[in-house]
């Protein structure tokens, strides 16, 4: 389950990371805009632009690495 990992990550990176959960059943237009076809889909945005997309559950360390790469500006 990815929710506890994301919640823990939001605490570890508080002040540098904003975590928002979207219910794709209710917010279908938002899901379509970001092409969220599978659950979970995790999107990392910076200044409103998509910089990374993760589909499926990732181990905490892998997710942390991806988030830190975006926060440091070294994401590919």
CATH architecture: 3-Layer(aba) Sandwich
Gyration radius from CA atoms, angstroms? 12 Å
Give the integer mean of the pLDDT values.
92
Number of beta-strand segments? 2
- Portion in strands: 15-25%
Largest sheet features: 2 strands, antiparallel
CATH superfamily annotation: Glutaredoxin
What name is given to the CATH topology? Glutaredoxin
- The gross shape turns out to be globular
Question: Assembly state here?
Answer: single chain
> How many domain units?
1
Helix content percent band: 25-40%
Helix/sheet category: alpha+beta
Give the spatial strand order of the biggest sheet. 1-2
What's the CATH first level? Alpha Beta
Task: Describe this entry's structure for a reader.
The protein is an alpha+beta fold and 76 residues long. It has a single domain (3-67), classed as 3-Layer(aba) Sandwich (Glutaredoxin). Helix content is 38%, strand content 17%. The chain contains 3 helices and 2 strands, in the order ααββα. Strands 1-2 form a two-stranded antiparallel ribbon. 3% of the residues are buried. The model has no long low-confidence stretch (mean pLDDT 92).
């Amino acid at each position: 389950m990815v929710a506890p990992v994301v919640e823990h990550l939001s605490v570890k990176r508080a002040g540098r990371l904003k975590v928002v959960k979207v219910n794709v059943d209710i917010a279908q237009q938002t899901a379509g805009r970001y092409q969220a076809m599978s659950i979970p889909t995790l999107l990392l945005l910076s200044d409103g632009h998509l910089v990374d997309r993760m589909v499926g559950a990732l181990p905490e360390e892998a997710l942390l690495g991806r988030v830190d790469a975006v926060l440091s500006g070294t994401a590919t």
